[in-house]
Structures are given as C-alpha cells and as structure tokens.
Amino acid sequence: MAVALDALDRRILRELQADCSQSLEDIARKVGSSKTPVWNRIRKMREAGVIAAETVLLSPEALGLEACFFVLVRTSEHDADWQARFLSVLQARPEVLEAHRLAGDIDYILKIRVANARAYDSFYQALIAEVRVFEITALLSMEEIKSTTVLPV
C-alpha cells in the first residue's frame, strides 16, 4: 500500500537519494524547511517503510567486477520445496545482485556481477550443482547505458 507523501516529503526523498550523507541542515536548506520538521518527516518515512535502508554505492569496475550478466532461468519444477531451495541458493550467492520471478516463458531473471566469463562459469557450475534447472541462458551486458537506484518521487 502506497504511503501518502506531500511535496516536501518528495523533495526530502530526492535529496536523500542524491546523497544521504549530507547533513540534516543541508537537506533542510535545500528543501526550504528547518531541521526539526525535516528530521520528523524522515523519521516518519523510515517508520512507514518508505525509506528502506541507507547505503553506499560502490563502483563494480573499481573492484574488478567488470562483467555483468543477465541470466534467464527456466525450470520444469514449480513446487514449493524447489522454489525455497532455489531462493536459498540465490540469497547465498554474493554475485547475484538482483533476482526476479517473471510471468511468461522465462521463470527467473538474475543480474550477476563477476570479474569475467571464467568467474561467471564458476557461478554457473555452482548453481547447477546446487539446484536443478531446465534451461539457463546468459546474456553479457556489453555496455551499461543507464543504471540508477533513484526512484521517481
């Protein structure tokens, strides 16, 4: 269920998404308010689950994780035990940045970050050793055109 946000809440969220490390004073100045009301709104948005987490974004390339693969997974098994095992395997793999269950011909899509194709193959071998899948297709991203964590608020 969506939380009702007014224009000031949205300005605060845009500032936090741009840089959550900026001071409360800076945020208040930029959104045209004072510190106490801004702090109270941030606290309420945290409590309501609008602000889920605060984190640092790292550069994959600077860390040697230059290969981004999108992995399409089809399975012939759809029972709860298989799904729980598959999800557990994905949760345990730090290479998996995102995992989505899909409608349509493909059951799951994974976003994987690794150093290179050999590292992807190691991931692939470990995955199929732990859980049975019908078909896997890996797509190497040649160029990241747009990537953002900023939501349109």
UniProtKB/TrEMBL annotation:
Keywords: DNA-binding, Transcription, Transcription regulation. Residues 5-66 form the HTH asnC-type domain. It comes from the Bacteria. Pfam families: AsnC_trans_reg (PF01037), HTH_AsnC-type (PF13404). InterPro entries: AsnC-type_HTH_dom, Dimeric_a/b-barrel, Tscrpt_reg_AsnC-like, Tscrpt_reg_AsnC/Lrp_C, Tscrpt_reg_HTH_AsnC-type_CS, WH-like_DNA-bd_sf, WH_DNA-bd_sf. This is Lrp/AsnC family transcriptional regulator.
